[in-house]
Structures are given as structure tokens and as C-alpha cells.
Specification:
single chain; 200 residues; alpha+beta; Glutaredoxin; Glutathione S-transferase Yfyf (Class Pi), Chain A, domain 2; 2 domains; four-stranded mixed beta sheet; 6% strand
Length: 200
């Protein structure tokens, strides 16, 4: 089984860490959607990271859909989402905010790295940055009473998102303004699954 994509993608890293926690045997094939587009297209013509190639050659893509498949297969003791409806809804809320933060961070990165400087649209950047900060502000409040617990899909997704944003644009999202997020991520980054798949 091969996980295709770069570990500096929060979506790829999210899947890698989750698969490790599920106890799945897989290898990471670090191929970039940007610098090695043709190589990625040979694996998945849509060129979407992460892509997972199952042992029977079935190609799955999109981190949430890949993880839904393995959450379904996981035995109860390895599941990363709560089974009770209210607890699951709360965790899905955290995941949604974490993924929104990932999406907005990626948008900002692409705007700066791929668009010519003279064509940057500041109102768009301001809007996306506002959405990013709103996502993290909501997470900061929701995590205020969160106890240190074993890694779940919610906590690992939020930690991966926060670490990615800090890796990419720490000057734009000050860690000292989000102590709960910072604490969650620091604890998560010490976990063996996180250490095995660092941001690269």
C-alpha cells in the first residue's frame, strides 16, 4: 500500500499519522503535485494529494475519504472517532475547523508562491487570512477545557493543521495568541506517530 504525496502537506501528513495509529502497513512515496506533476499524474491522473494506492491497486484520494475507509475497517480499540453521536459531532466540528485552517493556509501559500507579485490581490488575501484566524480562534475556545487524552482524529487533525500553519507562516499566526492550540500541538508532536512522519 502506498501513500503518495509530500509530508509538508498537512493532508498527506494527517493520513500518514492516522494510518500509523490504525496499525496499517504502508509506505510513503514522496511525489510533489507541483515539481513532479507528470510523475504524480502517472499514479493518479487527477494529481491530488494525498493519493493512496491500496494493495489491490484501487486508488483513493482526499484525506477525509481515505480516513473514512480505514475508520470503517478499524477494530473498536483502534477507531479514532467516537461512536456516540454527540461526542462524534463535537469531534467532527474540531476536524472541520482544522481542515478549514489547512485550506486557508494553503490558499495563502499558493497566492504568494505561485501568483506573480504584481498580480497579488490583497483583498482576497485579507479575506482568507481572516477566515484562517477565525478557524483558529474557534478552535482555541473549544479546546479550553479539553483534557490531555490519547490521540483521536480530532486532536491529530488540529495538531497537524496548527503545526503546518506555524511551519509556513508563524509570523502571521502568533503562537502566543493561541496557547491551547500550541499546547495540543506540542504534546502531539512528541507522539511516536508524529515523530515518524515529520513535516519535511
Amino acid at each position: 500500500m502506498k501513500l503518495v504525496g509530500m509530508l509538508d502537506s498537512p493532508y498527506v501528513r494527517r493520513v500518514a499519522i492516522s494510518l500509523e495509529l490504525y496499525g496499517i502497513d504502508f509506505e510513503v512515496q514522496q511525489v510533489s503535485v507541483l515539481s513532479t506533476f507528470a510523475e504524480f499524474a502517472a499514479i493518479n491522473p487527477v494529481v491530488k494529494a494525498p493519493t493512496l494506492v491500496l494493495d489491490d491497486a484501487t486508488v483513493l484520494m482526499d484525506s477525509t475519504l481515505i480516513l473514512d475507509y480505514f475508520e470503517h475497517l478499524a477494530p473498536v480499540e483502534r477507531k479514532l472517532l467516537p461512536q456516540q453521536a454527540q461526542a462524534r459531532a463535537f469531534d467532527l466540528r474540531l476536524i472541520g475547523l482544522g481542515l478549514a485552517a489547512c485550506e486557508k493556509t494553503v490558499s495563502i501559500v499558493y497566492e504568494h508562491r505561485l501568483r506573480p507579485a504584481e498580480k497579488l490581490h490583497q483583498p482576497w488575501l485579507d479575506r482568507v487570512t481572516g477566515q484562517l484566524l477565525t478557524a483558529y480562534s474557534n478552535l482555541e475556545k473549544l479546546l479550553a477545557d479539553r483534557k490531555d487524552e490519547p490521540l483521536t482524529q480530532a486532536s491529530l487533525t488540529v495538531a497537524v493543521a496548527w503545526s503546518f500553519t506555524q511551519y509556513i507562516m508563524a509570523d502571521g499566526v502568533k503562537a502566543e495568541n493561541f496557547p491551547n492550540l500550541q499546547r495540543l500541538a506540542q504534546l502531539a508532536e512528541q507522539h511516536p506517530a508524529f515523530l515518524k512522519y515529520p513535516i519535511e
